[in-house]
Amino acid sequence: MQHTLIALVENKPGVLNRVASLFRRRNFNIDSLNVGQTETAEVSRMTIVVDSDSVDARKVEANLYKLVNVIDVQDVTGQPAVMRDLALIKVKANLDQRAEIANLASIFRGRIVDVAAESVIVEITGTEDKIDSLTELLRPFGIIEMVRTGQVAMMRGNHAPVRHLPGAGSNGHHHEELIN
Amino acid sequence: MELTGAEILWESLLREGVEVVFGIPGGASIPIFDAMLKYPIHHVLTRHEQGAAHMADGYARASGKVGVAMATSGPGATNLVTGIATAMLDSIPVVFITGQVHSYLIGGDAFQETDVTGITLPITKHNYLITRADQIAQAVCEAFYIARTGRPGPVLIDICKDAQVEKAEFVYPDKIELPGYKPPRTVPAHLLKKAAEMIKQAQKPVILAGHGVQISHASQEVQELARKTQTPVAMTLLGLGSMPASDPLSLGMMGMHGEAYCNLAIQNSDLIIALGMRFDDRVTGNLKTYAPRAKKIHIEIDPSEVNKNVVVDLPLLGDLKTVLNDLLPYVEENQHPQWMDQIEEWRAESDSRNILYWPDDGKLYTAHVIRSIWEVTGGNAVLATGVGQHQMWAAQYYAFEKPYRFITSGGMGTMGFGVPSALGAWFANRQEDVWLVDGDGSFQMTQAELSTMVQEGANVKIAIMNNHFLGMVRQWQEFFYDSRYAGTPLTGPNFVKIAEAHGIPGRRVTKREEIMPALEFAKQTPGPVLLDFFVEKEEAVYPMVPAGADLHNMIRRPVRQPQETGQR
Description:
The complex is a heterodimer. In chain A, 27% of the residues lie in helices and 37% in strands. Chain A is α+β, with helices and mostly antiparallel strands. Chain A has two domains: 2-79 and 161-179, Alpha-Beta Plaits (2-Layer Sandwich), CATH 3.30.70; 81-152, Alpha-Beta Plaits (2-Layer Sandwich). In chain A, strand 2 (30-37) and strand 3 form a beta hairpin. Chain A starts with a strand and ends with a helix. Chain B folds into three domains: 2-166, Thiamin diphosphate (ThDP)-binding fold, Pyr/PP domains (Rossmann fold, 3-Layer(aba) Sandwich); 191-348, TPP-binding domain (Rossmann fold, 3-Layer(aba) Sandwich); 353-534, 3-Layer(aba) Sandwich (Rossmann fold). Chain B is built from 22 helices and 20 strands. In chain B, strand 12 (271-275), helix 12 (281-284) and strand 13 (295-300) form a beta-alpha-beta unit. The A-B interface holds A 9-10, 14, 17-18, 21-22, 25, 55, 58-59, 62-63, 65-72, 165, 167-175, 178-179 and B 117-118, 121-122, 125-126, 129, 146, 149-151, 178-185, 187-188, 191, 301-304, 306-308, 313-318.
């Protein structure tokens, strides 16, 4: 199943490389990885989606903690969290098809952000499933290009994310969680 | 105070207590070496950067301090790589310092430029690329802290040449701010009680002592736990010495070349108390059949090691010494007479096959040489090895009584580790006997460091177990490839003459009765001595668990009925 992890990392050169190198070296399979700024200038936020069993997901977490630049790792899988992915989809569209595509997009709360003679670009934000569904509906028109940001996630309200290794740090500690 | 980057580096190393560094200068590190002359730190000029890395590693293993190795950019730095990986896999604290081309040349394929931080990323605990002099003190301070704390490991600092030359204000940091790196916490009491209860319930417990016991300086605590609960102690290669070999509770080494009684005890146990070890494939054999009836307690500092290879029932995360000290008050005294009787029965069966009891059949066996080295050194020498058959025999027959005595490459299995690591260990313990037991294959990989040894006046006794083969590979070929010896027969030079060319006295030994006189000669002669033992060519290390086989399914040494009582 898919596991969504959030890693807060120091905003320093080479940190993304360290994380990517870890995934490669430990043979972890990553579905998506998103990196961006946070409310704190010194901290970047990575959202990592791994397709694995929970044992392997724990391994990803434990190994992330071994990186000196990783400050915190949270598991938001199955938690009350907002999950979002953004896609830009360039679809073949002649004059007659534009309205139909715009309709489809609006059903998914997407919108047309560019119109050209032979194509339009649809912007859609939502869960991965929602984007997958719209993509399938647009496919018959002919998808010329597509890009997705990968998933980002945030816990709702004051719900706390799960930290399997509270205390963080490369020698961070946890007990009960590992036993289960 | 304004200093050049190079001066800041040495000032920082002084503040970290560094006494000796191992390395080779080059174009991108000349300013560092130029500044070195002003500081009371001894530099050992090695003959190859791999030697520098292993020396710093051997120094760290024997002293418990952080070792330091230096190299220039490009080939100097890449020559360190094998040594860095060796230190990484065995969790050895070494700080590597490399010169780098000018910061404005980076990325332009300048002369002797390589992406050293990129290359060493997966084989260091952490690394730094320094482009300004004012970053150096902070990086050194952090590097030493990261290298020696938590699960130790190598840290590399790559310093651009302009950063070595430019000036900056020198202030050594008095605190470290690493938001993502925090020292271990303590284990909650209810989990300690749970562990104590599991220990109390066990009928057939075994302690597995790994390298972590020595890293954490916890051998006293391990021995206390073992004696209090009368639990036998099996050791990993790097855990040897955690429990004195002479103690009745010692089971010696476990795993691929572990004692049969030790592996049988593990396989038949109902509780494994794993201390600072990581269930490496060389100690578990087939994971599906590994200690199937045992509950498992794992005390470990690195969370990523828990449930990595073997799923455990109770992980206790923290520094081993601290956790054991917290745990011991909850642990009740206990005895397991039936279990110990069973183990003694297995031990007696193993003894019946012991090569040490064999009478002299005219052949020279490594086991007898190692046992004799043990005798002349009272079992207390610092013993370095290369990698291969001689290393396993050293582990089996040099009965270690104390920790920090066995300097050997475990996880990485780096041939060529012997000569430089022995020299590094000598720098850590100049008052102690330092012996190198090496193979003819391993020795030749780094024998250039013999001249480093001479230049430094090091007192290291070298014993080469010369079987004219890459012996361990030959053994696998004999067992698993129908004795097709592809690429393993090895014609060495006359090692005694090699020694003499270095001004080192040497002797060749071909018979069992010559062992002791040669060892006494080495012991009595000041400075390095090289002994070339022409040992039996096609002797195998027993027992052997074939790679991936069940731990209890060992290839055993054939029983030989002694015609007469051999010497032990």
